[in-house]
Design a protein that fits this description.
165 residues; Beta-Lactamase; 4 strands; PduO/GlcC-like_sf; GlcG_carb_metab_protein; signal; Heme-binding protein
């Protein structure tokens, strides 16, 4: 005669999910790390003789850090914020996004969305493939320079996936 198994144990066994099916939450981007990223981006541009505005946003697009060198025009603060937001929301570097939009008439209208800025210098921050925020750089002498400074910052702070072109 089979042993009696309590109903709650049978239900627990039926609803149990293997541990491998659970994915841990993506890493949170803290203020100290955001400040390191902003400093690293500014340092990378300074080594090229450029001063910039740098913004770091979290996974929800909320501002964590905005720093602007006094020598950079005030509009660059907003430009760096919008570049970071664009990179986060599209999960793509804004330099590549801008080039893709110019090359494809079907995506050219992305430039008309109020918060998006299709200008190089915004790079998404990924940790193990999951977005945790973004870095935006403006005022560094052109979109390619801004992109390079953002990418250098991400490479200088451990814990993030490498920037892909």
């Amino acid at each position: 005669m089979p042993k009696h198994v309590p109903l709650f144990l049978m239900l627990a066994a039926l609803t149990a999910v293997p541990a491998a099916a659970h994915t841990p939450p993506a890493a949170e981007l803290g203020l100290a790390t955001a400040q390191r990223l902003a400093g690293a981006a500014a340092d990378a541009c300074r080594q090229s003789g450029r001063t910039v505005a740098v913004t770091v946003v979290d996974r929800g697009g909320a501002l964590l850090v905005l720093q602007r060198d006094p020598a950079v025009g005030p509009h660059n603060g907003e430009a760096s914020r919008r570049k970071a937001f664009t990179a986060l929301s599209t999960r793509k570097a804004t330099l590549a996004l801008a080039r893709d939009a110019r090359a494809n008439p079907d995506t050219a209208n992305l430039a008309t969305l109020p918060e998006l800025l299709l200008l190089g210098g915004g790079v998404p921050l990924l940790a193990k493939g999951s977005p945790v925020g973004a870095v935006g750089v403006a005022g560094g002498g052109g979109p390619a320079n801004d992109h390079a400074c953002a990418a250098a910052a991400i490479a200088a702070v451990p814990g993030f996936d490498p920037v892909t072109p």
